[in-house]
Amino acid sequence: MKDKIVDLVSRNIRLLKNFSYLSVIQLINILIPLIIYPYLIKVLGEDTYGNVIYAQTIIGYIVIIINFGFNITATKEVSVNRDNAENLSEIISAVYAIKSFLTLLSFGILLIYMSLSFEGSQNQLLLLFTFSLCLNELLFPVWYFQGIEEMKFITIITLVGRIIFFVAIFLFVKEKSHYLRIPLINGFCALVTALISLYIIFVKNGLTLILPKFSRVFKFFKDAIPIFVSEFSVKTYLGTNKLILGQLSGMRYVAYYDLAEKIITAIKVPIKIAGQVILPKISLDKDINFIHKFFKYSFFFNVTSMLLVLFFGKYFILFLGGEGMLPSLDVLKILALTIPIVAMSSIFGLQLLIPIGYINYFSKSVILSAILYIILVFGLYIFNEINLMSLSFVNVLVELFGCLILYFGCRKYRLI
């Protein structure tokens, strides 16, 4: 038994290292916002904090546009060409060219939206400042470091940025009128981490930016479209709930939903980490048996996590937001049902269908899920039943629907 364990560890040492690094990253990204959450709620209040989250939700759609699916497609390309510096330089150059164009296009769309918006100038200014979050998506090449499986760089860079953010929030956000400083702090941290990562790529690793061939750029753009469509569709049924609540119920309800979502996101961290770690491995060796073994452990872990939230969710709410945020509890219990569902969807889609080559099927499944979301929300609107609870149930139903489609796809292509 001991020899088997040693052999298993030795054969997957890189996976274990990357899992450790990504665990640190996700803990940093989840814990720091949760730690400062009680402080921001106390200083800003539910309504103002809801405005900040509302702006971040809108910019979240732009982040998806700028990312354009490269977190998967570019990671795969870098993984395959990791030992060829010339190809890596061309890949990086092509991806940055596309991202730069999409950033300018998105900023133009945002300016048009703000000019047509009937909201107050302060809310428009908040939205403009929050756009600075896009600097991280434009410049920080997570896809490169994932592709070469050097997660330690992402870990160090992320740690630096989050520490700066943590300290700056307590130093510069001390009253409700300081809410505009939050996106500016985020933007500054994004710029710092981006500059560090660019130094590593172009100075330490010796890669260069070149003028990529149009055919190469077009190919990258075309290959990423299915992933972009799927990720934008996912954003539709995961992020739109807060926009709807902000428009129809008030920013206080955005804060309620956001707290429950933050807790569930923290619980789902292992799912995300595992997917990021094993994607390069599966892209290279197409080891389906490895995924089958992984599925068993993943399902058990995530069912246990769901039960933990169902039984102890109240204490999570009280610890983070106090009694004033208890309306989040029912939302939290409903969204907890998505934990094992999302885990299975991740395996069926991101670890089986995409690496094996069935990207189009994956994209179609997500688009269908987004269409179902729109239909359900429209039905709730017609019958005047839009509220925290109903939108939370819609989220669960859509996630379950998407998971089933992915499952049948894996059966269709004999992957399970």
UniProtKB/TrEMBL annotation:
Compartment(s) where it occurs, according to its Swiss-Prot or TrEMBL record: Cell membrane
Source taxon at top rank: Bacteria
Transmembrane domains' residue ranges: 21-40, 52-70, 91-113, 125-146, 153-173, 179-203, 299-322, 334-354, 366-383, 389-410
Keyword annotations: Cell membrane, Membrane, Transmembrane, Transmembrane helix
GO cellular component: plasma membrane
InterPro entries: Poly_Biosynth_Transport (IPR050833), Polysacc_synth (IPR002797)
Pfam families: Polysacc_synt
KW Methyltransferase (keyword) present: no
Membrane topology: Multi-pass membrane protein
Main localisation: membrane
Entry-linked PANTHER family: O-ANTIGEN TRANSPORTER-RELATED, PST FAMILY PREDICTED COLANIC ACID TRANSPORTER
Name of this protein: Polysaccharide transporter, PST family
